[in-house]
Amino acid sequence: MRVLVVENYEEMSREAASLFQIRIEEKPGLVLGLATGSTPIGTYKELINRYQVGKIRFQQASVFNLDEYCGLDKNHEQSYARFMEENFFRSIDVDRKNTFIPNGNAKDRQAECERYDTLIRERGGIDLQLLGIGENGHIGFNEPNDLLSAGTHQVELEQGTIEANSRFFVTREEVPKSALTMGMGTILKAKEIVLLASGAKKADAIQGLLSGKISTKNPASFLQLHPRVTVIIDREIADAIKLKQDVA
Ligand code: PGA
Question: Is 24 in the pocket of ligand 1 (CB under 6 A)?
Fold first, then answer.
């Protein structure tokens, strides 16, 4: 695992964007796995800037998103489908036929999860997966638990996650209590993974991720089993966990 310590959120976003740029240059038909949340917004902005000056094209790329809330219409202003549209897709040249997100409103959610994993497989698997991390160590919506799921599945969100997400909703009652998310196996099958974290509140989760121990109580810790992971953290986190220098 490569750990890159950067000074701040902006530098983290630039580093992540550079990795995407390099991989798309190498393979224009890259299959991307993307994430929502506050963390990747800077990366999307940076990629949009590079697109606008002609440094990067997404025409041939495909995108699979990690997760989607259950019970929100895809046009709801807090749906992850809408998030991706507003924060990224509408500003780049990705072909909408090649962007995918689980349908949290599907009648048969089990079938929808299976369909999603099949679709990823049929596209040859995810080449580069972008991840944020929850304060509790979740990746996607794989919440800490005694058992984790391998494939895309429906998950009941933890109280802390619901609270963290409530900042985007008018009332707490509106915050969805469940979601469809790629499973641990879906994520770990990506050929390459980049995880971003900034701000001291993520320090405990990152410490677990770098601990050398694997625990279902910190789903991100499973990334230590993957051969090609880059973790980009800011100085605040590094200081909080007393990581003194970049670790190769
Ligand atoms: P955040 O969420 O980027 O909004 O902090 C990350 C996550 O919960 O995975």
Answer: no
Q: Does the CB atom of residue 140 touch ligand 1 within 6 A?
A: no
Residue at 91 is within a domain: yes
pTM of the model: 0.95
Rounded distance from Cα 37 to ligand 1 centre (Å): 5
Rounded CA separation 46/40 (Å): 10
Spacing, Cα 35 to ligand 1 middle (Å): 9
Residue 167 belongs to a domain: yes
Q: Tell me if 131 is assigned to some domain.
A: yes
Residues of the domain holding 8:
2-240
236-243: average pLDDT: 88
- Tell me the C-alpha distance between 245 and 239, whole Å: 10
Domains: count for the chain: 1
The tens digit of pLDDT for each residue in 132-182 reads 999 999 999 999 999 999 999 999 988 988 998 888 898 888 899 999 999
Q: Is residue 168 part of a domain?
A: yes
Whether 145 is catalytic is no
For the chain, what is the mean pLDDT? Answer: 95
Spatial separation of the C-alpha atoms in residues 42 and 18, rounded to whole Å: 12
Report the alpha-carbon distance of residue 83 to residue 157 in Å, rounded: 19
Q: What is the pLDDT of residues 77-100, one digit of tens each?
A: 999 999 999 999 999 999 999 999
Closest C-alpha to ligand 1, atom 2? 37
CATH number, position 135: 3.40.50.1360
Pocket test for ligand 1, best of 67, 133, 167, 202 (most atoms within 8 A of CB): 133
Neighbours of 122 (CB within 10 A): 8
